[in-house]
Amino acid sequence: MPNHETLVEVRGLKKTFKRADGTEVQAVRGIDLDITRGEIFSMLGPNGAGKTTTISMISGLLAPTEGDARIGGFSITKQALEAKKLLGVVPQEIALYPALTARQNLEFFGRMYGLGGKELAHSVDEVLDFTDLRDRAKDRIETFSGGMKRRVNIGVGLLHKPQLVYMDEPTVGVDPQSRRRILDTVLRLRDVQKMTVLYTTHLMEEAQELSNRVGIVDQGKVIALGTVGQLIQQVGEEDRLILSVGTQTLKDGLLQKLQSSVEGVTRALYDAPVQASETSDQVQSGKITVYAKRGRRALPDLLKIISDASIDVMSVEVREPDLEAVFLQLTGRALRD
Ligand SMILES: Nc1ncnc2c1ncn2[C@@H]1O[C@H](COP(=O)(O)OP(=O)(O)OP(=O)(O)O)[C@@H](O)[C@H]1O
Ligand SMILES: [Mg+2]
Hints:
The chain is of the alpha/beta class. It has helices at residues 51-58, 80-85, 102-112, 117-130, 146-158, 176-191, 204-210, 228-234, 254-261, 295-308, 323-331, and strands at 6-18, 24-36, 40-44, 66-71, 74-75, 87-90, 164-168, 196-201, 213-218, 221-226, 239-245, 265-275, 283-292, 313-319. The strands form three sheets. A six-stranded mixed sheet has the order 6-7-8-3-9-10, sandwiched between helices. The chain has a four-stranded antiparallel sheet with strand order 2-1-4-5. A four-stranded antiparallel sheet has the order 12-13-11-14, with helices on one face.
């Protein structure tokens, strides 16, 4: 089969939950997506954006309120059995039996997928190798670190050799080293196993590193979609300079001056989370954000103007255009909390 064909088609997917008190939550408000065979597609969005709800519907675990998804042409609502054979699910919550060994867990879940005999044993061996857990296969899960549990959890989703693997925030709560291993595993799923991966995360670094394409999700909708390069182009080529400033009064016209007299600067904004009193603009601490082309070059002039205004700069951060900037531009909010 050619490598560029569409494996997953999501059309008009919606989910409304009813709370116990009768109020409704529109968790997913109409999502359309195509996922191409052989790619890592990431859904990037903050907590509560609707990522898990979307994945649960695409994997047939949750009935959509409206819309449908097709996997390899099979409707997840009308041809659920055929569709589910093509996919492996790695849930956000770890679902393993702590008192069983890694191998026993894999064997148990493999049987649930309908595997048995030599096929099962072979598959379990392959998965243990792939997740680098062969030498811990006989140890009980309760003796594993969080990162190792995650890898077993991923292994469970791979046992029946699915064409498509869903992974819902698989790096949450693991240490940096385990996280690196998980990200490498995801890349090998695509590059070595030739699988298609649907990955969710609220971390833009992960989406940037892993993805062929990213869908940015917010409040139940895809608000931007494309390659990382295409998405970043949307915000232009400006760097973001974030200057933490001290307790002084911000003089009138300072922002104006930064904007008009430093080359490359297009905007300077002030955001004062803590105001000393409602009537003065005396602040306890605040942030000046400057958007500038070639931000590092503009920095010395900016700092001079600010210090001439007798304002202390405590720290400076230079952010090159990234997916965080795309999210900020589209929503006015930061992706990180
Ligand atoms: N079973 C449910 N009943 C009611 N509301 C729900 C239910 N499941 C999810 N929600 C709500 O739907 C919205 C989307 O939740 P969802 O878990 O899909 O977000 P998410 O993007 O996966 O977030 P996170 O990054 O925290 O995992 C949230 O407002 C959540 O509170
Ligand atoms: Mg989630």
